[in-house]
Structures are given as structure tokens and as C-alpha cells.
Amino acid sequence: HPSSKERIKMLKKFLGKSEPSIDIGSGGFMPFVLKTTHACDKSVQAKKHLKKLGWNGSFMQVDARRKFPYGDKQFKIAICSEVIEHFRKKSDVMNLFILISLFLNIVPNF
């Protein structure tokens, strides 16, 4: 497994400066470091922490096991790091990938 620093370095390579990007299950740190344009997390504390850090993207409090309030093909890049291990049901993981595929305009291959 790559270290946190290595993972951040890899992710930064994929993120463009102005491309719409989202961090799903963001917590209160990664969107600031990666400079994503959007973030969502179940915790309202994540939003407060990001604001304190000076992140100025768009944040929504969302449970990643539910429907996202984003449109189809809205993002070029979606980051979902260290999220699926919190799901208890396999169906929640599958639904997450399907939802992500809609706003990225890709077809998941299960």
C-alpha cells in the first residue's frame, strides 16, 4: 500500500487545475490538499474543518450510500479514498460505483 504522501502525489497528477473534481467521503483534509472543486462527506465537521483550512470549493453533507445531489457528467475526476471499507453491505459499494459512473459518464465493469 502506498503511504499517504505517495497517494497524494499520485492523485495530484490526475487532477487538473480547473477541471470539475469531487472527493467523495472527503473528511476535512484531502480536498484542501488536492484542491478538488467539490467535496462531500457524511460529517458536517468535515465542512467546518475545510473552511478553517481555507478550502473554497463546494461542499455537501451527503451519505455516500445514498443518491448524490449531482448531475450526470458533472465531474471529470472523482476520488473515493478510504470510503468503501466503512460500508457493511456489498450492495452499498456497488451502488456507490454506479452513482459515480453516472456523473463521470463511464460504465463500471463488475
What labels would you give this structure?
about 110 residues, alpha/beta, 4-stranded parallel beta sheet
Brief digest:
The chain is built from four helices and four strands. The chain is an alpha/beta fold and 110 residues long.
How are the SSEs ordered, and which strands pair?
Elements: H1 4-14, E1 21-24, H2 30-34, E2 38-41, H3 44-53, E3 58-61, E4 77-79, H4 90-104
Parallel strand pairs: 1-2, 1-4, 2-3
What does this molecule look like?
This protein is α/β, with parallel strands linked by helices. The chain has four helices and four strands; from the N terminus they run αβαβαββα. The protein has helices spanning 4-14, 30-34, 44-53, 90-104, and strands spanning 21-24, 38-41, 58-61, 77-79. The relative contact order is 0.18. The mean pLDDT is 82.
* Beta strand count: 4
Low-confidence stretches: none
Mean pLDDT value: 82
Q: How is the largest sheet built, in terms of strand order?
A: 3-2-1-4
| Global geometry | globular
